[in-house]
Amino acid sequence: MGRATLIGYLLLSCLIGNSYAENIKIGLNYPRTGNYKDEGLELRRGALLAVDEINKTGGVLGKPLELLSRNTSSQARKAAINVDYFAQQGAHMVFGGATSEEAIAAGQKAREKGLLYFATLSYANDVTGQHGHRYLFRESNSAWMSAKVLSEYLSWHMPRMRYHYIIVDDAWGRSMENTLRLTTGSTDRARHGRSALPTGVVKHNQYQAALDKAANSNADILVLVLLGDNLQRSMSLVHSMGLKKRMQIIVPNLTKSVVQKAGPLVMEDVIGTEAWTWNLPEQDNIETGKQFVARFIKEHKEYPGSTSASAYSIVKQWADAVQRTNSLDSEQVIKALEDHSYSLLKDTQTWRAFDHQNVQSIYAVRVRKRDEIMKDPYKQHYFDIIHRMDGEQAAPTEDDWQQERGEALQLE
């Protein structure tokens, strides 16, 4: 290699190196394997779409945004270790996760590193309640918010019913069960029974035993506080046992990937909640929401789900706060986010200052009949909205929040 060629090569290498060094990095925790891998794919798709859009319009503070991503396998320990990796790589923010345990563990690690952590698919009240802190924000709704909209709908349309609960025995499962029992008046466990499945791998006979108990309970409403593979396997048994013929099935947190995986025939007529559906922007005439849906369809030939929408919104909102403050400093960005209201993919949402919960409209939805779904061009128009509640009505009040927190009445 000649001297001139070598010098040119070294200069090019330096330029490339400097270009990468100038990228502003953010980290995505997502389950690429394990119980919630389908939700993980949705998270990554939404995040990449946001990063691409931001970079096409000049990046953040004039620099390209770069997405780093690491698999969590839906394990809290891995999620926390990933935050260490993102910090070492120079990330300025971390987001994601598919369980509340991930959000709590990763959020605490991010706090130690001085990084903001935005939780997705983390519904336990504890996330922004007992375990909330200044560096943790939650875009997804809480168990309390899902329970409020469900209980209002059920009290109007199915009053004085007998409930039976099957939960996964983790922070979200317990949180959702306790809140829904409270809001539906089903706290009497002698009348409204339950079964708890273990975290981790669940055996077929454990699913079967829980559903046999439900079948023998004379309940009118069966609440499955489950997600991912746990929900798919339970719903397959519910369908084969014919339980939907004599019970209304409630799945408190529904997502596009849940229905896709279990199948629309198995899931039809199930009632749950969603914070967003792909057709909401058209119904509410939200232009930026319509553009997001159109871009997602063009990219993936399918509708976006609420999981992709959550990841997309987080990246866009963080980038917007950085632009408004002209700073990557976490403290400055926190101040810019607190009590900031915006409309991006739906009607007005607010990052509430006292608990960092995203306050937004929440919807009770019913899975449409399979025949109706199959008529849709993408065969993914899964949900009919059957009830809506404003975010301020659905979210716990500051007094409720302080009661849960005990002595720690402010985020630290």
Task: Considering the chains and any ligands shown, give keywords for the structure.
about 400 residues; alpha/beta; 17 helices; 15 strands; about 50% helix; globular
Question: How would you characterize this protein structure?
Answer:
The structure is a single chain. The protein is an alpha/beta fold. 48% of the residues lie in helices and 17% in strands. The chain has 17 helices and 15 strands. The protein has a 7-stranded mixed β-sheet with strand order 7-6-8-9-10-14-15, with helices on both faces. A 5-stranded parallel β-sheet has the order 2-1-3-4-5, sandwiched between helices. Strand 3 (93-96), helix 4 (100-113) and strand 4 form a beta-alpha-beta unit. The longest helix is centred in the N-terminal third of the chain and has 20 residues, at 3-22. Belongs to the leucine-binding protein family. Residues 402-412 have a biased composition (Basic and acidic residues). Residues 24-369 form the Leucine-binding protein domain. This is ABC transporter substrate-binding protein.
In terms of structural class, how would the helical and strand content be classed?
Answer: alpha/beta
Strand order in the sheet with the most strands:
7-6-8-9-10-14-15
How would a textbook summarize the main sheet? 7 strands, mixed
End-to-end separation in angstroms reads 58 Å
Tally of extended strands?
Answer: 15
Helical residue percent band: 40-55%
Question: What would you call the shape?
Answer: globular
Q: How many whole angstroms does the radius of gyration measure?
A: 22 Å
Our count of helices gives 17
Proportion of beta-strand residues? 15-25%
Mean pLDDT score: 93
> Would you identify the regions where 5 or more consecutive residues have pLDDT less than 50?
4-20
Protein name: ABC transporter substrate-binding protein
Region (Disordered): 393-412
Keywords: Signal
Domain Leucine-binding protein: 24-369
